[in-house]
Every structure is written in structure tokens, then in C-alpha cells.
Amino acid sequence: MAHHRIKGMIAMSDPRVTLIGHPAPAWLVNYADLMTELVCFFVVLYAMAAALNKDVQKAKKDVEEKMKEDKVATEVKVSKDGMQITIEEKGENVFFTSGSADLSPRMIEILGKLSPILKKLADEDHDIIVEGHTDDVPINTSHFASNWELSTARATSVVQYMIRDLNMPPQHMAASGYGQFRPLVPNDTEEHRATNRRVVFFVKNQPAKFEPAPGTKEKKPEEAAAAADDAPPPDATADAAPAADAQPPSTEPTTDNALPLPQEAPAEQTSN
Description:
Blueprint: H1 27-47, H2 54-69, E1 74-78, E2 82-88, H3 105-123, E3 128-133, H4 147-166, E4 173-179, H5 190-196, E5 198-204, H6 221-230, H7 236-240
Parallel strand pairs: 3-4
Antiparallel strand pairs: 1-2, 2-5, 3-5
């Protein structure tokens, strides 16, 4: 079968043209590898975005030094989503009274060391989520029906204390509880249970900030409110100006202007 060559196009019989069912040219393999490597490269850059944040890196170093001085089992991780600070109940570090959400003196001391570092991040628009975690020993008291409720109450106690006594900004604080459902290690020994009883501070990365378009000026809230007060009502002009074709009211007597005829008074009604 003869192949007709179209002007300006490569003939189908040319070896540079790959037909369906024929192997791809050799250069395509190298090209595909290059594209894959570029995708991986940008994914790594995205994952390291938080790690390159100088404020977060400094806070990570400060937390590790403070907790090391106080001999608190602490793990600090930085990811693309933010910084995660995990403090565990090991040794003498008991954070809460057994079976309750009341902060222990040791926990109050630890929060006093952590709060200045976290407050700097919160003042820079970083949101901080406090997570509560327990072991798998079941609980059923008059205050807490499950470990899930206990862990949530403990996280809330930490947030309330940090806001009330340590001046943390409440608009950047939140609490959540996971109960025994996210253990770090199996709950098969007392040491492992102490590891799973922990409090986690998750510092989220700053939200994206969008700059106004060039040449535009963003109005402040008070300026926008003043402009809205000065603007005339939409129908004020239409109501004030009379219609051009409106006729003055007639003073001639008409049947509509006639006085009503007297009517008999209605009969008095009585209730059944």
C-alpha cells in the first residue's frame, strides 16, 4: 500500500515515525526519566518548605534544649505541614492526676518552659493544636466514660491554662483528643503505656498570604465602613424627584369624593 506524503509532513514510511504497535524511539526513555526526576525534585522542595523556615528551625532547637535541661522525654519533628512536639510520661514526668484532667505541678512547670517559645510562633500567625493521648487501660467514671473523652479533656485543660495563665493568643489555640487509638508502641508493658500517655503540640505552618494586585490599594475596615455610611441610599434620588409626567391632583368634585351615605349601626353580637 502506497503512503502519500503530505506537503510539509514526514512520510509514514520514514523510520523516524513510530506507528501503533511499534517500539518507541530510544530518546523517549531518557526523556521520561528526566521528567520523573524533575517531579521528584519539586516534591522534595515542597516537603522541605517548612524545614527551611528559620523561625520554625530556631523554635525546634530551643524546645529540644529546654526539654533536655528538664530531662523531659521529647521528640521534635518538622515536616511540610509544621512542627510536632511530643512530650511523653516517662520516669517522674506525670502530667495529670490519675483518671482526671487536672494538671500536675510537673506539667505546669513544663508548660511554663514551652509557652514563651510557642507564643512567638503564635504571634506570627502559627496555629497551635494540642493533642491528648492515653494508653489502652479502660476508664469509666462519673466524669469520663472513655479514654477518648479523657484525652480530649486533658488537651482542653492544657489549652485553657496556656491561655488563662500564660497569655497565649486564644485565636491560635485548639484542642483535640485521640484516646488510645494512636499509640506509639504496643500497650503490652507499663513502660510502653507511659510512652503512649503523651501530649503533642502541633504548630501549623503559616497560612498563605495574598498580596493585592499592583496599582490597587486595599481599604482598611474603618475606611470601608466610612465610605458605606457616606453613600446615599440607592432610591433616595428617585424618591425625592417627582415624575416628569405626573399631573397635579384634581380639585373638581367626583363621585369618588362624594360623602358616604349614613348606614345603620350593626346589631350587637353576643357570645355563644
